[in-house]
Amino acid sequence: MMTAAVAESSGCARYTFRVRLSVSARRELEAEWDRCRWIWNESVAKSKQVHQAARVSGGKGTCGPAQLDRMLTEARARTPWLCEGSSVPQQQVIRDFGKSRAKALGDVKARVPVRQRAGMPRYKKKREVLPSLNYTRRGFRLKDGRLHLAGGIVVRPVWSRQLPKAPSSVRVYRDAVGHWWASFVVEAVTEQLPQTGRVIGIDWGVKETATTTSDAHDLPHPQHGRTAAQKLARYQRMMARRKPRKGQAGSNGYREAKRQTAELHRKVGAQRQDTARKWAKKVVRDHDVLAVEDFRPKFLAKSSMARKAADAAIGATKKALAEMARKHGRIVHLVHPAHTTMDCGNCGARTKHALPLSERTYTCTVCGVVSPRDKNSARVMLVRAGLNPTGVDLVSPATC
Questions:
Q1: Is the Cβ–Cβ distance between 290 and 389 less than 8 Å?
Q2: Which of 33, 88, 145, 317 fits a 20 to 30 Å CA distance from 304?
Q3: What is the spatial distance between Cα 309 and Cα 301, in angstroms, rounded to a whole number?
């Protein structure tokens, strides 16, 4: 089964597959992660030591990837346990540490508010951090449907589809449920769909996740989280009753309740992603150009609609739509959401006051048009993107 099918990032796509492990392969991966975690913790300790020494002496101390790479080479030469593992994931741990530390120092230099800073890298505790191993091109290969990792580790991905190109890197990790996954980074490939000559405007909301200018493409609120809320509350109560004291390891019952909670969260997340991707594929297949509200749902987390907005997964749906449009060569116009509920999609007039959320019907005082509020906002997206439709079938004027 493949979950996060495609995730665009700087011209690349990410394909994630479930991995089946033998007992020996699982033991080798966990041992490899123990070495990488030790290297991370040593990097954190060395960084703190250099920083404190610089403060005492009044000078400047450096502890970047170059210094840590030399320390890793020396440590591998004198430590047989460390040398048993591959140097590829160990070096990637140092690269990740360097990026994390540079981000934290950059936030301090830019005077980012403390609550918004990433923070300096911290120690990775054995029972709290999930394994994650990164391999570059020279650290893995695919042969006979199996993934061969540096160090002689062989795993079997569950291939739900073929990779379009040779991957440049892979990340093998374990989720909170205990399942192992392999995430490949591949150069993005465009699969052009036939032209339809149709355009669509999309407005995001809470009552309906997406309201469009086409009734057949509206996305109702799926309420996956609400369906699982009762069972989730039960597992969380089990965790609360068995919660260990600070500094103590959790009991088997606590860890099982935590695993069941993570499994339910994973299921709800997969349902939301599946709904979003199927809807996005339908919209992209039927339309050439998309005018999408550039909505940032973060502020809803502090409102009375926080739970329902989180269950709607507007951000994930918007991301899935953008990825699907990129994959199939469609054009996406991101429209600024300011005053989209106040403008008329027919004549462009703007009301003199903001409409309350309880008012779901938009009535224009200039041209007199009456329409559902979200439908009017979706039509405003088309107008602002320069795709003013003609006719009820929303065909672009250039094709009429």
A1: no
A2: 317
A3: 8
Q: Where are the alpha helices (DSSP H) in the chain?
A: 23-57, 65-78, 80-83, 87-109, 224-241, 252-286, 306-312, 314-327, 373-384
Nearest-angstrom CA–CA distance, 21 and 32: 15
Q: Which residues of 142-173 are buried (b: 16+ CB within 10 A; e: fewer)?
A: eeeeebebbbebebbbeeeeeeeeebebbbbb
Place of tokens 């550039």: 294
Residue 87 CB contacts under 8 Å (≥ 6 apart), including other chains: 72, 76, 150
Tens of each residue's pLDDT in the chain, 400 residues: 333 333 344 578 899 999 999 999 999 999 999 999 999 999 999 999 888 887 787 767 677 888 899 999 999 999 999 999 999 999 999 999 999 999 998 999 999 998 888 888 999 998 889 999 999 999 999 999 999 999 899 999 999 989 989 999 999 999 989 999 999 999 988 888 999 989 999 998 878 899 998 889 999 998 898 899 999 999 999 999 998 888 788 888 998 999 999 999 999 999 999 999 999 999 999 999 999 998 877 777 777 778 888 888 888 899 999 999 999 989 999 988 888 888 888 887 787 777 777 778 887 877 878 888 888 888 888 888 887 643 334 444 444 3
Alpha-carbon distance of 336 to 333, in angstroms, equals 10
Furthest-apart CA atoms within the chain: distance in Å = 82
The amino acid present at 88, given as its one-letter code, is V
Q: C-alpha angle 221/226/229, rounded to 5°?
A: 165
Helix (H, G, I), strand (E, B) or coil at 358: coil
- Percentages helix, strand, coil for the chain (3-state, rounded to 5) are 45, 20, 35
Q: Comparing C-alpha atoms, which of 6, 12, 13, 32 is closest to residue 21?
A: 32
- CB-count exposure of residue 32 (10 Å: 0-12, 13-18, 19+): buried
